[in-house]
Structure formats: structure tokens, C-alpha cells
């Protein structure tokens, strides 16, 4: 994986990387991709549909309140690095 | 003076209930070891300062004659398991000051029984690693040989039990992170069936693979802890309940997969098979051709899930933050500077295998091969009752030895990752020692059972370790 691609992926993943990190990752991730490339060789004789659906299903809960409104608000707000007037504070985006 | 070396949960229960020792005596014995050894071995990230309350309430229950299995038993927990009001940092700078706002289900169940939770243990950052060297707070040293790693990612948990700094511990296992450190530290580690223990309150790494399990001194203790923490949980929709009633007769060995391991580790394994045979189990070779793909499949699916799970750490909702001019800068700087290099590397790899144009070749293909492996394992358990392998191809390696070679590091998980891909339970049991320089290093026997058949692992494991 070349350094340009690492830089692009880092941007998508919201990671600011130093040049030395990018170079090291380019080498290491390349080695890992060479290794995992063998999954492409695995022969699948089982039909694709059967595989896609095996064991996997969505589980939903009823759309009702799990707890009284406001019960956890203070705790959760206190976890945020910056709060103001009972709200989590972020930079202006517009 | 309590003989901690030979103490088990079962024995401690008897001593506590007969009032031969108090909860405080027991906790103090562990705290003494922690204060003597922790600054050198770096096993605990934090020992909780308010243990008195836990000790008092446990003692009151015992005095009233109503003790449960874990009442007054001193535990450590991995730094990714939430305990309300305490820091849960996943050994990462990005969660350095994060205090849990609720209890994980496993902690809730332990507290219901008045177990004493001493503190949280060091781990590879966000459970990504096999040596505990990836902690943002420095490597943990193996109590058996401090020049060596304790394994990982639950390295602190395994080392705390091995070093007599807790009677038992809870770790988490995504690709071997309970079994491999247990094997490196000479203790027992159980990776339960996927979903049999609730993941509610476990900081997620790869959600389709993660499971919480016990690290203990012997198999019976692992059984006791598992029976307390297991069960369906309304807060985890993937949790399941159930059991199986399998009398073990045949144990299968996938010999086609026994490659690339140290000769003396293999010798110990062959010797373990003989011991099992002497106890009346039939050892049978089995062929599992798709296991050869398991590590490659794991290193596609796991990073894909990691990249999704790690998206929540953005410096806004919780944890630490590095400020920037614009919102995007806050994200980039916080994540870039506060997340460690192994975790960042896996996020990038995951982002790549999920990206348009590559998802078909990597992610979707790996998902299919995972199902092939699942099916292969399911079918083999129609022919044999358990599978056996060495837990790790090598004993504990030296700190720094594999740090610059990701593939070598990943290969240490070769006998454990397919178990997570299949979702079945497995246990690592100490089965001997190998000599490296001046150290006698433990090795582990890994026994693997069908879904929800932990009972079969305990049945054979207890007989195996008795000799």
C-alpha cells in the first residue's frame, strides 16, 4: 500500500498522521495485505445466498422508553470533554 | 499467613465461610503482593481506593451465612470492562479520564454476589495485540520471567492471577486474548461461546467476535465464574442462553494445521494427548482444510469491525480531546494523537477492506470463508466431541522481540482465532513447561467444544489437570 493511499484512508478515518507514521504503515499494512490476499484463493462451493443468510438476523427492541427521561443526562454530559448549558459543546460547522 | 499460591476460589470459599480468614485478610494478602510487585511488573492500571465498602459488605453477607460462590473473592478486571464511577480506559490515552457511567452486566453480576473487585489491569490498547506491549502505559511483564511478555491482549489479567495479585480475573477474547495470555502465564483461561456472556459494558473491539471470560487458577474456578457471569441479557441482543449435555469420548486433532510451532511445544502437546488417551479418551485425527485461511479471514473481518467501532472516539462525546480550529481538526488531532499506532493501523486496514471497489475482494470474500470455517467446525463436531490444539505455537517471547514484525506477532494467534470465527467455546489449561535460557516457561493445551458445550470443556479439563 503506497503512502498516498495511506494518507487518503487516514483522511477518511479522521486520523491525522505524521509522515514517519505514514511510511511505516505503508510498509506494515502492505505486508498484512500480502498475507490476507490468500482469502481470495479460498474456493467457496457453497452457494452465496445460503452463506449470506446463515445465522444472521436483525434483532429489534420495542420502540419504547427504556428509562425515565433525564435519568442519565447528567452522567452522560459529565463524560463529554466540553459542555455548556446542559449541552455538549462542539465547534461551529457552518 | 494465607497460602495464596495454592489458593483457589473453592478453597477460599471454605476458609471464608468457616471464618478461618476474613475478607479483609484475603484482600490485604493480595494488596501486599500488588504493592510489592506492581511498580516493576506494571500489571494493574489502578487499584481502587475505596475497597473498604466492598470488603465490609462481603463480610456482612458471609457473617449472615448467606454467601454465594464469589462473595468476598478478590478479582481484577481488564481495563475495557465498565465498573460504574471508575475509570475504564482500555489502556488508551483517548479514554484516559473516562469514568464508566454504568456497570457492565458482568460487573453487575459479580457485585450481586459481593465479589471484591480490586482494580483494573493493563492490556493492549483497545484489546488489539498479543503481548500487552501496545498499552499506552507501557508493557506488562510476565511474573514468571519479567524479561518476557505475559501475552495479550488480557496480559494484565493473566499476570495478576499468575503473580498472586488477584484470585481470578475477567478478560476479553476476540482472537485469543484470554487463552494465549493464560497459556503464557501458566493459568487457566476460558473463552466462552459467543453470546453466552453479555457484552453490555465491554468496550467493543470487533463485535462479531468479542466475548468476556474468566482467567483463573484451575478449571473448576473457571467453571464457577462462568456460571455466575453467563446468561441472556436484555442489554445485549446477541446474548444467548442454553447448555448441552455431551459426554466426551472422542477428541479430534487437526494435524494438517499443526505447523510452524516450536518442537518442544509440540512435544508437550503430544504428551498431553497421551495423558488424555490414558484417561480413556479416543484421540482421532481430523481434517479441517479451511482452517488454513482463518488468520487471513480474521485480519480482514476484525479490522473492518474495529474501524467501525473506533469511529465513536472523536473527542466530543467522552474521553480526552485535543482542540483545533474547526470541528474536523478536533477529530483529526484527537484521533491522530491520542490513539496508538497499532489501533490506527487496524483502523486504516479496516477502512481499506470496507471501501468501495475492495469490499467484494476482501470483506465479502472473508465473510464467506468465515462461514465455510463455521460449517466445517459444525460438521466436525458430529464426528468428535472436542478438538485439541496447543494454545500457542510458541511460549512467552521477550519484550520487544516481535514488536516490529506484525505478521510474526499475528501468527502467535494461529491456533486461537478460528475459534472466535466459529463462535464456539475453548479453554486453555497449563500442560507443561519448556526451557528458554534460564526460564521454565508454561505451555497450554487448548480444548475446543461445540456451541454452548462449556460443560464438556470443564468435564475433560478437570480430569486432565488432576494428574
Task: Write a compact overview of the structure shown.
The complex is a heterodimer of chains A (94) and B (467). With 94 residues, chain A is mainly α.
Polypeptide structure, described:
The complex is a heterodimer of chains A (94) and B (467). With 94 residues, chain A is mainly α. Chain A is 44% helix and 4% strand. Chain A has 4 helices and 2 strands; from the N terminus they run ααααββ. A two-stranded antiparallel ribbon of chain A has the order 1-2. The two termini of chain A are 35 Å apart. The model of chain A has no long low-confidence stretch (mean pLDDT 85). With 467 residues, chain B is α/β, with parallel strands linked by helices. Helix content of chain B is 38%, strand content 14%. Chain B is globular and about 65 Å long. Chain B starts with 8 loop residues before the first helix and ends with a helix. Chains A and B meet through helix 1, helix 2 and helix 4 of A and helix 9, helix 10, helix 11, helix 12 and helix 13 of B.
